[in-house]
Amino acid sequence: MTITDSSTAVPMTTAITLTPTGGPVLAEVSSVAAAAGTSKTVLYRRWDTKVEMVMSAMVDVAREVLSVPDTGSLSTDLHTILVRMRARLTEIGSETIRSLLADLPVGSTDALLRLITSHVDDVMAPTLERARERGELGPGALAPRAAALPFDLARHEFFITGTMSDDSIDEIISICVIPLWTTLTNTAGT
Q1: 107-133 pLDDT per residue, tens
Q2: The pTM is what?
Q3: Is residue 85 within 8 Å of 175, Cβ to Cβ?
Q4: Nearest-angstrom CA–CA distance, 122 and 124
């Protein structure tokens, strides 16, 4: 799987904006290339398949959507982030996402996981720092897996059920994430 960085933002954003209502998987590479002012050959140098290109586009667009809120409380910040994530996933559609995942080439899981989680630190680092400054979390560091937990649980909820209710978001935050983060950041190094 050949996934690249933000230098490919124009073709990737084009892949998403060109998609018909049936979802990103229907975007034709030639249409994306034409709209991006490049050729199919250039796109295929960056991505081995159309599925990889569309997945990259989805992550880039998601990165734009997941700006860092500052509401004054960790739980409200997380709620805002997950509501934005839900809106983007709903726009794409759970069936489209499932079909893209099913079409991924064998052996591309590690690259896809890196791509999907590449935005976590950008969003979570300032969110966690502000929570520490407000005394909502302790001084201890969170492992990357723990910091990604709200995204992982929300993604799982959406992919499995096809939706993510406000109640589900609240449960993810209040039952799973904040208690774990509070414990981990207050017991680190002890």
Answers
A1: 777 766 776 777 778 888 999 999 999
A2: 0.74
A3: no
A4: 6
